[in-house]
Amino acid sequence: MSTSSTIEFKGYNNYETAATIYRHHDGYIAGAGKDLMDFLGEIEELGSTGQSGLASSYVVWAYKKDIQAEIVSTRLDHGVNFKYVVTRVGNTGVDYKVTVTEDNRHGVREYELTAELVASEVAAMEARIAAHEAERRS
Predict the structure, then answer these.
(1) Within 10 A of 88 (CB to CB), how many other CB atoms are there?
(2) Which of 31, 105, 130, 131 is the most exposed place for a label (fewest CB within 10 A)?
(3) Distance of alpha carbon 36 from alpha carbon 83, whole angstroms
(4) 58-80 tens-digit pLDDT
(5) Full-model pTM
């Protein structure tokens, strides 16, 4: 079973959605969340870009990293496990805030995506993989 996610890039007014990207696999924080933070870190180095241009840039960036992501024409909420919303902060155009809505069997929760959260989730995922590998070998 895959863990799907969407990434919504809000427009300049931070209300309208400029573009939505759908990822069918690896929607978890340690997957799509980490990829999004890596992308935003790289794009900040390049300078300001519009939000719809940012979405297109993400798809190209993802393609180069062999990540399956596509811009979709409709808003997808049903059946999506993680929804990431990217909004601009301030007037510079290179500072972003990412809000995550996680919908799983325990309910729905919303929180801000931070570098610390991503690092924690990646470490937890790596520990689970190592434990699984050790169990499999024994």
Answers:
(1) 21
(2) 105
(3) 12
(4) 888 889 999 888 888 766 656 78
(5) 0.83
